[in-house]
Design goal:
It is built from seven helices and two strands. The chain is mainly alpha-helical. A two-stranded antiparallel sheet has the order 1-2. The longest helix is centred in the N-terminal third of the chain and has 18 residues. 16% of the residues are buried.
């Protein structure tokens, strides 16, 4: 089994790092949040956002992916970059699988509040 990618950020004003591993919806969301936090704390203009975080992708596969389409990605918005990243690197049909997981969720022995929060977090991956 391949290990999942991880996001590290030493401080809100430091460049976040996307470490090598399989990109999951959770990791993609963490990366997006870390980058957005970095942009806010460093006052990065929208036109420079993708270029500023691109070299924080430390997975060689993602780095090569960025370099091969650098001109296109740098010209787009950060939101377009994230959408392209998810489309190209998340498992096929990830959203459908996640929807099924949400719809089929049962509380089981979990406390209601914990189960509800877990369900909300899964749902946020679809719409956040």
């Amino acid at each position: 089994m391949t290990k999942s990618a991880k996001v590290e950020q030493a401080a809100p004003n430091k460049l976040p790092k996307l470490l090598a591993g399989e990109l999951t919806p959770e990791t993609a969301q963490e990366w997006e949040i870390a980058c957005t936090t970095y942009f806010m704390h460093r006052d990065v203009e929208a036109k420079d956002q993708v270029r500023m975080i691109a070299f924080g992708m430390l997975d060689p596969r993602l780095h090569t992916w960025y370099l091969t389409q650098r001109a296109t990605l740098d010209q787009g918005t950060f939101e377009e970059y994230v959408a392209t990243l998810k489309k190209d690197w998340l498992e096929s049909h990830w959203a459908t699988k996640l929807k099924k997981k949400v719809l089929g969720s049962h509380q089981g022995t979990q406390r209601f509040y914990e189960w509800a929060l877990d369900l909300q977090n899964l749902n946020a991956l679809l719409y956040g």
